[in-house]
Specification:
Blueprint (H helix, E strand, L loop, with lengths): L1 E6 L6 H14 L3 E6 L13 H11 L6 E3 L12 H11 L5 E6 H5 L10 H4 L1 E6 L9 H10 L15 E5 L7 H9 L10 H10 L3
Parallel strand pairs: 1-2, 1-4, 2-3, 4-5, 5-6
Helix pairs in contact: 2-8
Length: 207
């Protein structure tokens, strides 16, 4: 099982890392790849450069053997469309189960993505849920869930793509925007992100 966890990671924080390790364990993934995007399509431009966000991710995942950073979207000159990324990953891994990890908020916006109906053809979806965080699910997503939802993450390994599963994760209420706000105000962000990442932010005077 190859798991993919995309985002801006501006900056990467402990909430990202905790969700990733819980997802990797639930999937029994041989590898989980963080996929930083260069030019986000559905949100404002990042504050930190692609180079700095990549460097922070590399620092954050040191010591976790199944974690990797995938550079393909960072190195792409055009905006980051997930369908293109999954297509290239499938060509490289034709016979392996691939799972795209999404937060609940990102999953709710799936119908706004480029060629969104084709995404399950290239990968499973593992949707991370937090307790007491209801999100409105539109009719197109309800229909998709009806067709493709399974109860257990382990069931995704039986096929290469096409299924959707929810996973309840530890509720760490941390966001990149809140971290950036603290740093902009000159306040401490310690214990919200790895010390190595915080040291890098301070050395490069980010945010």
């Amino acid at each position: 099982m190859l798991a993919i966890f995309g985002g801006t990671f501006d900056p990467v924080h402990l909430g990202h890392l905790r969700m990733a390790i819980e997802a990797a364990e639930a999937l029994s993934a041989r590898e989980l790849r963080f996929l930083p995007c260069r030019q986000p399509v559905h949100r404002a431009p990042t504050r930190a450069s692609a180079k700095d966000r990549l460097a922070m991710l590399q620092l954050a995942i040191q010591g976790e053997p199944c974690f990797r950073v995938d550079r393909r979207e960072i190195e792409r000159a055009t905006p980051s469309y997930m369908i293109e990324t999954l297509t290239s990953l499938r060509l490289e891994n034709p016979d392996e189960s691939i799972t795209l990890i999404l937060g609940m908020d990102a999953f709710a916006t799936l119908p706004t993505w480029q060629a969104w109906q084709k995404i399950p053809e290239w990968a499973h979806l593992l949707v991370l849920r937090r307790a007491h965080s209801p999100v409105h699910i539109t009719e197109p997503l309800q229909a998709l869930l009806y067709q493709r939802q399974v109860d257990r993450p382990a069931a995704l390994a039986a096929t290469t793509a096409g299924k959707i599963c929810y996973l309840q994760t530890t509720p760490l209420d941390i966001s990149s925007s809140a971290v950036r706000a603290l740093l902009t105000e000159g306040r401490s962000a310690r214990f919200l992100l790895p010390d190595s990442v915080l040291d890098y932010i301070q050395a490069q005077q980010l945010y």
